[in-house]
Amino acid sequence: ELRHLRWMLQKDLLGQDMFLIGGPGPMRRQIALSYLELTKQETEYVSLTRDTTEADLKQRREIKDATSYYHDQAAVRAALNGRVLVLDGIEKAERNVLPVLNNLLENREMNLDDGRRLIPHTRYDALEQEHGSSSMASLNVLRVSSRFRVVALGLPCPPHQGQPLDPPLRSRFQAREITYPPFQDQLQQLIEQYPNVS
């Protein structure tokens, strides 16, 4: 596990998004959450299903006090606040969601339903320098934090059921295979951990 955590730290320092791929089980999620706990980073978690839509990642319309308004979802909150977005089950993402993910991963951009637009921190900072901070609000652009990262968790398809990742989407990630240690190694570890259990 330490090798995986070290690899994740290297990719994080390089500003790269990560894809942990491996067989069924909780190990990929445990490693990702252990890394976030060790580095004390905030996270936004999305469990992807075949029913996940663009709105589940971007903004959802809600009604409060007879007024309709847009509520930012996990991907937007993570991008704006410099959190790590964990996408669990990326092999289940439907085709209509992939363009949104692609644009967010490659360009750090996203058009929001309320008329605002996320843009990468480098472009935002250049615009702010050119136009001044007071006029940035009128441009309806929001700054994606330089600390924003994406960690995707998924199964290899095939042999498992799900959509094979689009080559453009796959190329946005640095991938690492997460495999369980052999049964004998796990058994030995349990024996060492609990020597008095017969």
TrEMBL record:
InterPro entries: ATPase_dyneun-rel_AAA (IPR011704), P-loop_NTPase (IPR027417), VWA8 (IPR039891). Signal peptide: none annotated. Residues 17-173 form the ATPase dynein-related AAA domain. GO terms for cellular component: cytoplasm. Pfam families: AAA_5. GO terms for molecular function: ATP binding; ATP hydrolysis activity. This is von Willebrand factor A domain-containing protein 8-like. It comes from Hirondellea gigas. The lineage of its organism: Eukaryota, Metazoa, Ecdysozoa, Arthropoda, Crustacea.
